[in-house]
């Protein structure tokens, strides 16, 4: 006999689909089928069943080999490393639940760590822009129920957030959007002809790195003021036309991704994109939303927000929270040799940081907590595999629109494996002992 | 549990009618008891000091998505005020939107032990609860918003009170909410299209209902259920010159309705931050106070309560589920603007604001809040708030007390304003010589708020049997005191107890307490129609499934205090 578990939440991307159905064996140990998920989401679940999965911590040896150790030893190693560091970097936090993030924060407080998450290399620029200018935002249901103008800017949900378009943005029928796709005009702004661009009504094939100019031109066009013949590779007629499409909408939503946040201009691009949205609110209703990547990167910004007041790059090393992106951000710290150990949980800087940073991690005392083997686990001194959050343990996660959803446990973790939260709790307890708190 | 006796302080307790008499207060097993019941108590010497029950804040924005937006988008709010971890205290930061830890500690330092989060978007209930869980010491509850909810709009356009009530009961349970909150009824739904409802008869676009129908219907549904608190309202047209007529029109919707609640409240409508709703004139040039008109009404109608929403003349962060108002505000001050519209339920906005004493309008707003309280006949129905952080941060409560208790301090302010003559001309404060007593302050901050929330059986007094929440302040009411000493003493409790646990000793926080989350579980008769409607709306319009909507207990509400209501009869 098998059991089907409904309403399962996908712990892969910021779309955080919560309508999955998972079939498990009667004893709750084996995950058999995943329904409703996209290919990457389904793979995340099935990956927990991999035969070659590591189930015990392992420590790198002098000769480059690995030695399996027990969790107790791993906890001691981690606690000693953090307690003896002047300024540890505690990075990641995007693929775990808010409960673990909360415990991690307290460890950071006691050890004077720098807490940073993956926003540092993706939407950190968006967070900075929001601090400059704010953000007219909405939940994804508002998009589904009201939006008749949808813009995808520097993002390609067809590949990165595969169910976004069908669940929320292009295809669904909502309360005021009974015609679904037919009632919406979709604009894609991207230098590449992506699969998302293929379903758009208008594709503005912008010159790479010229986002700021095009955004600025749109603001000019809203006011009906003169433009040069071509801006950012787009003829002005097309820009006026796009501006008219946006202004004439009843509800405009702009989604943007790393194509804008990490191209030249960075947070200034987002400032301008938000200004476009603000301007549109003079004529109609408009909102803008970052396409957050990891399923709970948004949550770590939320937890640190209520605990420290800052969404990423929080430096606790002076005993209180400081925040200054460019100074307190992971890559800046690593490259300036300002941290003396690295703790990674819930992300993979080994795959996403510049090589020079990864090299620094490999030279420092370092611990990586991750159910998978990744480029990061390969360079850290200690790798602690843990249960999959959202598959083998539940916990709160925040969708890209900040809506919190509780992920569900569907199968048991392999015998004797710890969860992120359990591991961190033990490390916290041990650090308190070492520090005499 | 330890026993305590707090000896010889000047006690102020409106429930027991004690007006500063010297008395001993006994604590045992987390409750107040008769002194004769103690066997081996620890003694706290309160000689020469003021003793009151722990204070109860009826309306503040201290947890949830808009509060956190305020934190995260204002790094400047943390300048120069981040404090390190020390003793039992976690790291703290933030001025107008403090971190959760600072929120708990700062309330405790003022002698507050219970605080209501005044607006919870239901879809974000988990977030609100996570923040409350991380707020130490104080008991909290959160009010889910109903005034723009599609279920409510659809039921009430046909005056379906029973269905509305069933839905309210369902949502309170799903979100672990405490009361029915209404913010700019209909107007925030209209804001989904960039529109608004500026008065109570403006129709809500596409929904064929008016704000007046929403308010009246929700009062009736609230009384149908007999909830501990009344409907809690922020009406339409907030912040606009001339809006006092909208406020009076709204008050009148409660006429003829009597409370139906076993929880001892007398009101059917609590109108919040009335300062923002008491404006005369028709532009910012002839802007003036209409507090006498407002208070005449409040004084002569005992089925409503209000809180003042006192402007404190600080730089702060405004935040409200009144989405269109925040857009209006950002157009006025050109500062940064965050907005979030929430599917089927509500919206919100956040905008920083500087209430400068050199700006005439701000100074008039400051005067109006004080006038409301000083013209009140019954301070069991008029409460002290700053609508934190909208009119100012909650840490200014002791300063507001100073203004209410000292005519001298008010006059110094009034005559010191840059536009002094104009401010005095547009307000009534200069002619008011009333100085509130500590007894009246205890009504405004303890006995009255606890009663209005339907929590008089737990909080607001030192009566034996109630929760042992108690504050001792270094303030001798029998001495000649300079106004400043009021602010100093009441911002820095010398001792504090929460449910019998000592939280503050000699001004120092010594425990994080054992905070509870209050929520109301209203039992209603089965209502298949409402359950069908819920199912259908989740299938068609929500983006989370019904199965993932309810806030499960465990880590969101680790220490719940559930108030049971039976509305099945
Ligand atoms: S779109 Fe994202 S959240 Fe949804 S199933 Fe795919 S990976 Fe999972």
From TrEMBL, chain A:
<dbReference type="GO" id="GO:0015948">
    <property type="term" value="P:methanogenesis"/>
</dbReference>
<feature type="domain" description="Molybdopterin oxidoreductase">
    <location>
        <begin position="53"/>
        <end position="268"/>
    </location>
</feature>
<dbReference type="Pfam" id="PF00384">
    <property type="entry name" value="Molybdopterin"/>
</dbReference>
<dbReference type="GO" id="GO:0022904">
    <property type="term" value="P:respiratory electron transport chain"/>
</dbReference>
<keyword id="KW-0560">Oxidoreductase</keyword>
<dbReference type="GO" id="GO:0018493">
    <property type="term" value="F:formylmethanofuran dehydrogenase activity"/>
</dbReference>
<dbReference type="InterPro" id="IPR006656">
    <property type="entry name" value="Mopterin_OxRdtase"/>
</dbReference>
<dbReference type="GO" id="GO:0016020">
    <property type="term" value="C:membrane"/>
</dbReference>
<dbReference type="InterPro" id="IPR050123">
    <property type="entry name" value="Prok_molybdopt-oxidoreductase"/>
</dbReference>
<dbReference type="InterPro" id="IPR016457">
    <property type="entry name" value="Formylmethanofuran_DH_bsu"/>
</dbReference>
<dbReference type="GO" id="GO:0003954">
    <property type="term" value="F:NADH dehydrogenase activity"/>
</dbReference>
<protein>
    <submittedName>
        <fullName>Formylmethanofuran dehydrogenase</fullName>
    </submittedName>
</protein>
TrEMBL record, chain B:
<dbReference type="InterPro" id="IPR011059">
    <property type="entry name" value="Metal-dep_hydrolase_composite"/>
</dbReference>
<dbReference type="InterPro" id="IPR050378">
    <property type="entry name" value="Metallo-dep_Hydrolases_sf"/>
</dbReference>
<dbReference type="GO" id="GO:0016810">
    <property type="term" value="F:hydrolase activity, acting on carbon-nitrogen (but not peptide) bonds"/>
</dbReference>
<dbReference type="Pfam" id="PF07969">
    <property type="entry name" value="Amidohydro_3"/>
</dbReference>
<dbReference type="InterPro" id="IPR012027">
    <property type="entry name" value="Formylmethanofuran_DH_asu"/>
</dbReference>
<dbReference type="InterPro" id="IPR032466">
    <property type="entry name" value="Metal_Hydrolase"/>
</dbReference>
<protein>
    <submittedName>
        <fullName>Protein fwdA</fullName>
    </submittedName>
</protein>
<dbReference type="InterPro" id="IPR013108">
    <property type="entry name" value="Amidohydro_3"/>
</dbReference>
<feature type="domain" description="Amidohydrolase 3">
    <location>
        <begin position="42"/>
        <end position="484"/>
    </location>
</feature>
């Amino acid at each position: 006999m098998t059991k089907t578990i409904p309403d399962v939440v996908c712990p892969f991307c910021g779309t955080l689909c919560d309508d999955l159905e998972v079939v498990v064996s009667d004893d709750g140990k084996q995950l058999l089928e995943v329904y409703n998920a996209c290919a990457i989401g389904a793979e995340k679940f099935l990956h927990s069943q991999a035969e070659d999965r590591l189930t015990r911590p392992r420590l790198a040896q002098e000769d480059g080999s690995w030695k399996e150790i027990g969790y107790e030893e791993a906890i001691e190693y981690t606690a000693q490393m953090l307690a003896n560091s002047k300024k540890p970097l505690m990075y990641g936090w995007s693929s775990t639940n808010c409960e673990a993030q909360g415990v991690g924060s307290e460890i950071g407080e006691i050890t004077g760590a720098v807490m940073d998450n993956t926003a540092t290399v993706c939407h950190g620029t968006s967070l900075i822009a929001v601090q400059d200018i704010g953000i007219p935002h909405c939940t994804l249901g508002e998009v589904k129920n009201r939006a008749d103008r949808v813009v995808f800017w520097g993002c390609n949900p067809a590949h990165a957030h595969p169910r976004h378009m069908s669940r929320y943005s292009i295809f669904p029928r909502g309360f005021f959007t009974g015609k679904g796709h037919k009632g919406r005009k979709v604009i894609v702004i991207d230098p590449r002809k992506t699969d998302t661009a293929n379903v758009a009504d208008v594709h503005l094939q912008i010159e790479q790195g010229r986002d700021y100019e095009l955004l600025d031109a749109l603001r000019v066009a809203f006011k009906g003021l003169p433009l040069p013949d071509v801006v950012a590779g787009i003829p002005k007629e097309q820009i006026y036309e796009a501006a008219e499409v946006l202004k004439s909408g009843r509800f405009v939503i702009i989604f943007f991704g790393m194509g804008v946040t990490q191209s030249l201009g960075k947070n200034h691009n987002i400032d301008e994109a938000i200004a476009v949205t603000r301007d549109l609110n003079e004529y109609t209703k408009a909102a803008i939303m970052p396409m957050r990547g990891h399923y709970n990167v948004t949550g770590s910004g939320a937890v640190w927000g209520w605990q420290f007041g800052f969404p990423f790059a929080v430096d606790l090393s002076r005993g209180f929270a400081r925040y200054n992106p460019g100074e307190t951000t992971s890559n800046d710290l690593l490259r300036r040799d300002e941290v003396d150990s690295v703790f990674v949980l819930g992300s993979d800087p080994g795959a996403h940081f510049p090589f020079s940073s990864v090299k620094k991690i490999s030279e420092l005392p370092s611990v990586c907590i991750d159910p998978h083997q990744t480029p990061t686990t390969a360079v850290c001194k200690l790798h602690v595999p843990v249960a999959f959050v959202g598959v083998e343990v539940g916990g709160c996660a925040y969708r890209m629109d900040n809506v919190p959803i509780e992920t569900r446990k569907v199968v048991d973790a392999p015998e004797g494996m710890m969860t992120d939260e359990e591991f961190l709790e033990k490390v916290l307890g041990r650090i308190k002992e070492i520090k005499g708190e | 549990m330890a026993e305590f006796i707090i000896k010889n302080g000047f006690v102020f307790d409106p429930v027991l009618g004690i007006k500063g008499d010297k008395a001993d207060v006994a604590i045992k097993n987390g409750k107040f008891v008769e002194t004769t019941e103690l066997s081996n108590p620890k003694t706290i010497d309160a000689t020469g000091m003021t003793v009151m029950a722990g204070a109860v804040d009826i309306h503040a924005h201290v947890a949830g998505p808009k509060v956190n937006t305020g934190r995260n988008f204002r790094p400047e709010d943390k300048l120069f005020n981040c404090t390190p971890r020390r003793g039992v205290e976690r790291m703290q930061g933030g001025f107008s939107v403090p971190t959760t830890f600072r929120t708990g500690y700062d309330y405790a330092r003022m002698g507050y032990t219970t605080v209501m989060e005044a607006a919870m978007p239901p879809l974000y209930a988990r977030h609100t609860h996570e923040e409350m869980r991380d707020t130490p010491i104080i008991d909290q509850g959160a009010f889910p918003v109903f005034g723009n909810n599609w279920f409510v709009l659809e039921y009430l356009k046909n005056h379906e009170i029973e269905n509305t009530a069933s839905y309210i009961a369902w949502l309170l349970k799903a979100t672990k909410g405490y009361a029915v909150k209404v913010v700019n009824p209909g107007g925030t739904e209209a804001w989904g299209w960039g529109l608004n409802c500026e008065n109570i008869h403006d129709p809500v676009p596409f929904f064929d209902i008016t704000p007046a129908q929403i308010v009246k219907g929700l009062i009736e549904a609230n009384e149908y259920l007999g909830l501990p608190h009344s409907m809690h309202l922020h009406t339409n047209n907030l912040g606009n010159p001339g809006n006092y007529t909208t406020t009076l029109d709204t008050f009148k919707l409660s006429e003829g309705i009597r409370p139906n609640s076993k929880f001892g409240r007398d009101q059917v409508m609590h109108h919040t931050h009335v300062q923002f709703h008491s404006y005369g004139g028709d532009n910012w040039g002839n802007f003036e106070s209409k507090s006498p008109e407002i208070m005449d009404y409040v004084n002569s109608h005992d089925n409503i309560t209000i809180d003042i929403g006192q402007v404190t003349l600080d730089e702060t962060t405004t935040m409200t589920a009144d989405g269109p108002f925040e857009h209006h505000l950002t157009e006025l001050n050109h500062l940064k603007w965050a907005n979030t519209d929430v599917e089927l339920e509500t919206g919100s906005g956040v905008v920083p604001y500087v209430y400068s004493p050199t700006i005439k309008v701000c100074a008039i707003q400051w005067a109006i809040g004080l006038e409301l309280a000083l013209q009140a006949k019954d301070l069991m129905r008029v409460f002290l708030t700053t609508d934190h952080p909208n009119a100012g941060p909650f840490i200014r409560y002791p300063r507001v007390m100073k203004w209410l208790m000292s005519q001298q301090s008010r006059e110094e302010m009034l005559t010191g304003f840059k536009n002094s003559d104009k401010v005095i001309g547009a307000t009534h404060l200069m002619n008011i010589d009333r100085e509130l007593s500590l007894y009246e302050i205890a009504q405004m901050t303890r006995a009255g708020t606890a009663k209005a929330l339907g929590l008089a059986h737990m909080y607001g007094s030192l009566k034996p049997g109630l929760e042992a929440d108690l504050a001792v302040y270094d303030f001798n009411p029998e001495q000649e005191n300079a106004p400043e000493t009021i602010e100093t003493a009441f911002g820095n409790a010398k001792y504090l107890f929460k449910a019998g646990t000592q939280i503050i000793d000699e001004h120092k926080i010594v425990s994080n307490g054992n905070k509870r989350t209050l929520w109301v579980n209203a039992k209603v008769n089965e209502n298949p129609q409402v359950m069908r409607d819920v199912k259908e709306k989740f299938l068609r319009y929500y983006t989370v499934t019904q199965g993932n909507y309810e806030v499960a207990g465990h880590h969101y509400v680790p220490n719940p205090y559930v108030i049971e209501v039976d509305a099945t009869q």
